[in-house]
Amino acid sequence: MSVETTSTLSRFMSRRVRIATGLVCATAAAVALSAGGANADGGPEDPHGELPVLTAEDLGLPEGPQMMTAMAATAGDDRPDFQMPFKCGETWQGASRPDHSPSANAIDWTQGGSTVNSPVVASADGVVSKVRDLGGTSYGKYVVINHGGGWSTVYAHLNGFNTSTGATVKAGQQIGIVGSTGGSTGPHLHFEQRHDTVDQRITFNGAPFGGSGRWSKSLTSKNCETKAPEPKPEGPGDGGTGSTGMVDLASADLNGDNVVDVAAVEASTGKLWLYKGASNGTVASGGNRVLIGSGGWNGMSNLTGGDFTGDGKDDIVAVEESTGKLWLYKGADDSTISSGGSRVLIGSGGWNGMSNLTALNLNGDKIADLAAVEKSTGKLYLYPGNGTGLNARKEIGSGGWNGMSNLTGMDLNNSGRQDLVAVEKSTGKLFMYPGDKGYLSPRIMIGSGGWNGMSDLIGGDLLNSQLSDDLIAVQNSTGKLFLYPGTGAGTLGARKEIGVGGW
């Protein structure tokens, strides 16, 4: 796999194209891509046919309303603290459709070329009520976990089991591996949350996940061994009440002070918030954040910021998951972006077939370019910005990029060109791919491990006393926001906490 100090003027220009993206994603669905953008039908493929209704016996659960006091779960509609059924820090693409069997509430999860045999973990504490193999039909190999209070989860089409009926499991404990068994046409995990055996709308971290109609959306797992303390300390949320979490962090200078700000979507409300950056390497507290998008942003993904129009003002680019269209929201240097009615279409469809979108300026001009991974092939492409849209793409990574996550464009070696920073999923190592004349040089390890416990990596010039861009990331286990200062030599300094929790 493979992505120079000059004058004060060139350094200023490079800052205005510094960008980063938030949540990353991947899917096994193949898409057809044109040179200037991506084209597809805008929805996930159907990975399985009709699934029969599972009875209480099939689920290994008692008939009628149930209570399992041993798990200290409450009755009724008080859900357990459900997390994604994947390892902490992993990003997966969830999809559903109106005719999804057994109901539209069920979610099919994929992760590009790395889907098959990926670990599946328990979504919450519980007791395994059923481990069953239906062979080449229906759910195939599946596991059911009883969480108490009438709540259970179903994990289907597995390739193998790592648990047995009657076993007590903790959230995050591996129970199987992703496969394509039963009535499945491609590797994926079919996942359900049920109450008294009836499919319910999926929630993670207490917030609903999904959409209406035919949809596909990415999310990063916070199913971590160490949970954030309760009540949560004051963070991104209002006035110390805590937060259900922020997603899709993006960096962009939206107030024109030449210091990067952090934009983030509030998962529970779909609102887009701006946390203004200060040159001492801090961001505004939750009580001082600015609302820049009143709602609906949880239907957008892969947010990234940079000067895509060449007007000296940073903008926000995002994918509309329901249509696969790519939209540009122009920035105005007054802590605002254009409204939905004024947004500009720069990609007509199929962009939900791409993942890890990040602005990546490799040629050193003042217009941001866009890099993205093609989910079906793992190839990395660069779409050069032209001030009004994107030019024909070029391949800058020949494959294997669906094994990387949290791609982030930033000038880490102070060359005037951006470099690409990414986490290797299998090892948790952090790598830099130096930018060089429109392409990427061989990678350099800048973090020896543990980075798969961080998410929403973004880059930009936050600490102005340093010589290069800095890296910002969320610690999944605590919800804290950390700053890793750039040293100017392609390395990162000791981190400091800039957000106390709720991220």
Automatic annotation (TrEMBL):
Comp. bias (Basic and acidic residues): 224-235
Domain of life, source organism: Bacteria
Record domain M23ase beta-sheet core: where: 116-197
InterPro entries, per database record: Cell_wall_metabolism_enzyme, Dup_hybrid_motif, FG-GAP, Integrin_alpha_N, M23ase_b-sheet_dom
Keywords for this protein: Signal
UniProt signal peptide: 1-40
SUPFAM superfamilies per UniProt: Duplicated hybrid motif, Integrin alpha N-terminal domain
Pfam families, A to Z: FG-GAP_3, Peptidase_M23
Annotated region (Disordered), positions in chain: 205-248
Designated name of the protein: M23ase beta-sheet core domain-containing protein
